Amino acid sequence: MSKLWYKKQADNWNEALPIGNGRIGGMVFADPENDLIYLNEETLWSGGPETDNTLHSMDKLNEIREHIKRKEFDISDKKLSDMMGGRWTQLYLTPGSLKLNIDNISTDVVYHAEENKNKKPLLDYRRELDLETAVVKSECSYSDPKVDGPVTYEREYFTSLADDVMAVRVKTNYNMLTAAVILDLWLGYDKLTYRNNTIYATGRCPTYYDANLEENQFETDPNKESVPYCIAIKVLTDGKVSAWGQRLKIEKASYYTLVYSIATGFNGYNKQPISEGKPYEEICMSRLENALKYSFEELKDRHIKAYCEQYNRMELCIDGEDFEDIPTDERINRVAKGAVDNKLTELLFDYGRYLMIASSQPGGQPSNLQGIWTKEPVSPWHSNYTVNINTEMNYWAVEQTGLSECHMPLIDMVKDLSERGNHYGLKGWCCCHNTDLWRYNLEATKGVRWGYWHMGGIWLARDIYEHYMYTRDVEFLKKYFGVLEGIYDFLEGWMIETEDGHLTTCPSTSPENSFRYNGVEVFASEGTAMDLSIIADYLGNMIELSDVLGKDSEKYKSMLGRLKPLKIGSDGRLLEYGEEFEEIEKGHRHISHLFGVYPGNTLKKGTPLFDAAKKSLEYRMIHGGGHTGWSNAWIANVYARFGDGEKANSHIINMFKKSIYPNMLDAHPPFQIDGNFGICAAICEMLVQSHNGKAELLPAIPKVWESGYVKNMRTRQGKMISFKWRDGKVYDVITIAASFMDT
Q1: What is the pLDDT of residues 584-625, one digit of tens each?
Q2: Which three-class secondary structure state does DSSP give residue 613?
């Protein structure tokens, strides 16, 4: 039974359940009295097309390089910070929320469900998210002296993949239902109308957001464009409907169905969202009218059919006792205290697949730091695309689990970024550690530790290689190969030659980490392991892909041959920096220097560098590494590549212990979705690895996974593999050719 279920309503965000269709997101509380759904739409961002054409001086950059060469790191850091513009990305926004109040149960209409402290006792309550249907349900009953027998309420919620609307149905056996549907628009509105049991609202996002301002952070300039939106909510019921303001009131009903539609004018990262935007009002209403052709059951059936076409492509079973009669939050607590629950691990894997389908669909935007689910006016880290690990991690499992088309929003974002070029006047393109809907590609903030890193685009472009390897779609490769070539053009102008003739990067940072030199904490040096590993991985991939297309690969071979090699320190560890500097945070959450183990493939088993990477990870762990959700997930993947199933599994268990909320979303903290996707990928890596030219089955299986089966997992050889195992031994292996186009 692939269900998350609970004995009580959600009292806060970390207990609510996510629904989504790639574009529309909702967090469902399923409160019997004062229900709450937080709303999201993937293109609701502040700002507009990027107009910052800052061009950094190469003379100043070369001056900074000289300071680094002389090991004057404090001076070079200061000058790098001065060079950085101090801006950040724009902000992913929530339009607001829906309140679904039942006045029969409680006469006190509570504005936010989190504030309701006076809940009446229930005779019975259950809510669930069924991963096999992508539908949230809740059922409850009350004892009411005015009614003969218990009063029951049933609710269902889904966001349709087939019809692109959100639908909610509330039913009761009490035909005198009185309820209210309240649209709470946090972004405000410029028009609000009501007709024919439908609320229509239009508005637009702030024209700019500046994280550096203490006041008036949101700019709404009538002379500038920003993303406009339209919301329409239709109520269908056997009762009476009336409206005032942002509220629909339902009286004397036994049920009501709510259909919610939202559309924006966003029409591309480089187009003005109003004057060049989509006809968002017409689109919003068209989607609503189309959905209203169907009954609720028909809408639900159409949604389930579309969803299952993706979700049912693969299957994982890890045998073990099934504790499905225990609520999910209680199961998490049991595992955190030491209980074995393989089926909960299996559920976590399926949840990762569900979240990918729900947050990333073809033609849309990639899954951001929080997927498509945020409740904050100003989300943590702007809920942006943080591309020094987090955005990439979101897509680590997408190909292996057979969801190749869900990969396309990220790949299309990479293509957009390639069109943005760079800010040094060099050929080609690059991206630093943050980007947004408008494909921002400057250094973010004035913090060298975070922002001065130019490998983000190269790492992202690795997904083009991965998509081709799993699908073997040559036409796809031809279409996006130019994006990959632009990286070489940038590297050719960006890298410098060392005294011994090697090529390296400078200035170079290891994302968000630092070292101490002459008693001072500093960040930038020359040729970090992260930079060099990403570049080596890229060049190796380009040699392989050039051969596929019959293109000359000599320039890639030449650059790879001149690339500065990684170094091993005096204690046998892989050096994170080009030299053996003093570490400040020995258990740092980033394990950037291990990129060549995973997700890259440049550090090969049986080599000294591979062994040095193992020592580096153990050192990190001894000193407290893996203390955030995504970091824990990355470590699990690296241990899987090391072939250590026990330690990989210990980090899955570690997620249950300290990096997961009751709704099974990843706790950074706060919520970030990358850990969910990263753990899903780790489970894949423990079962099947295909990065060395062939599929290896059960390369990192823990003893507790005694038996089970895998059905239709993908490999980089363009194959689909199914097998069973018992006592760590594989049997009944079936391998067939597969691609996302013929599943």
Answers
A1: 999 999 999 999 999 999 999 999 999 999 999 999 999 998
A2: helix
Please say if the pLDDT value at position 174 is more than 90: no
Q: 301-311 in b/e burial notation, b at 16+ Cβ within 10 A?
A: ebbbebbeebb
Pairing of strands 3-6, 228-237: unpaired
Q: How many CA atoms lie within 13 A of 493 on its CB side?
A: 17
629-641 helix and 608-622 helix, angle to the nearest 10 degrees: 150
The model's pLDDT over 76-134, given as tens digits with 9 standing for 90+, comes to 999 999 999 888 899 999 999 999 998 755 433 333 344 444 445 567 899 999 999 99
Q: Say if residue 437's pLDDT is above 90.
A: yes
Structure tokens at 675: 């850990």
- The b-or-e profile of 368-388 (16+ CB within 10 A means b, else e) is bbbbbbbbbebbebbbbbbbb
Q: Kindly state the percentage of the chain with pLDDT values over 70.
A: 96
pLDDT at res. 542 = 98
Confidence of residue 742 (pLDDT cuts 50, 70, 90): very low
- CATH topology for 10-46+91-311 is Beta-galactosidase; Chain A, domain 5 (2.70.98)
Whether 654 contacts 332, CB under 8 Å: no
> Can you give the length of the chain in residues?
743
Q: Report whether pLDDT(359) > 70.
A: yes
Range 57-86+380-625: architecture per CATH: Alpha/alpha barrel (1.50)
Q: Where are the domains of the chain?
A: 10-46+91-311, 57-86+380-625, 316-359+626-743
Question: Phi and psi dihedrals of 412, rounded to 5?
Answer: -65, -35
Alpha helices in 48-187 (DSSP H): 58-69, 73-83
Do domains 10-46+91-311 and 57-86+380-625 share one topology? The answer is no
The Cα 581–Cα 588 span in angstroms is: 15
Per-residue pLDDT at 737: 82
Q: Are 600 and 566 in contact (CB under 8 A)?
A: no
Tokens describing residue 439: 């494909």
